[in-house]
Amino acid sequence: MEAKSGKKFDEHDRAILRILLADSRTTLQEIGRSVGLSTTSCWNRIKRMEDAGAIQGYTVEVDLAQIGYQDTVIVQVTLESHSEETLYEFGRALESIPEVLEALLISGDYDYFIRIAVQDTRDYERLLRERLYKIPGIRHSKSSFVLRTLKKAATPLTN
Q1: Which CATH fold would you assign to the domain 64-145?
Q2: Residue range 96-115: average pLDDT?
Q3: What residues does each domain of the chain span?
Q4: pLDDT tens column, 82-95
């Protein structure tokens, strides 16, 4: 693995990343014991990976059903125009919708692949009317409710 700066990451760096991916609250002492390095060395490596952009942040994983979002909907959207302004404004509009978990500009028959968390079908219908369909420039959309998640996204380091 190589950083944007051109500096390569070694096995110790990848081992540290695996640990942080499993639990980003792991202490430096625990990381050091696991990878066979001092806490200072681990801290320096983590700081270097943050500075290089390999570590972009630390997050909390939330069980959406536990907080009332029982369903996930995949929405594929085609826009009327593909100008930079249209793409920018569409992306800004999606950022303002808290239920949008992920939005990807894609190739193929549709322009966007959007993953949305909703409480139920009635909540999704409300979201469509009040938020999504008010975004200018949508030509066509197709929605699919997720029935079951078979595999969650992971980085190659966790395999």
Answers
A1: Alpha-Beta Plaits (3.30.70)
A2: 95
A3: 1-61, 64-145
A4: 899 999 999 999 99
Give one DSSP letter per residue of 36-79, joined into a string: T--HHHHHHHHHHHHHHTSS--------GGGGT--EEEEEEEEE
Please state which architecture CATH assigns to domain 1-61: Orthogonal Bundle (1.10)
pLDDT score recorded for residue 59: 86
Q: Is the pLDDT of residue 150 over 80?
A: yes
| pLDDT tens by residue, 12-64 | 999 999 999 989 999 999 999 999 999 999 999 999 999 999 999 998 888 99
Output the six-digit token pair for 81.
């125009």
Q: What's the one-letter identity of residue 151?
A: K
- The b/e string for 87-98 (b: 16+ C-beta within 10 A; e otherwise) is beebeebbeebe
Instruction: Please compute the mean of the pLDDT values over residues 135-154 and round it to a whole number.
Output: 90
Which amino acid is present at 108?
G
Q: How far is CA 120 from CA 65, 68, 125, in A?
A: 11, 9, 9
Other Cβ atoms closer than 10 A to 117: 23
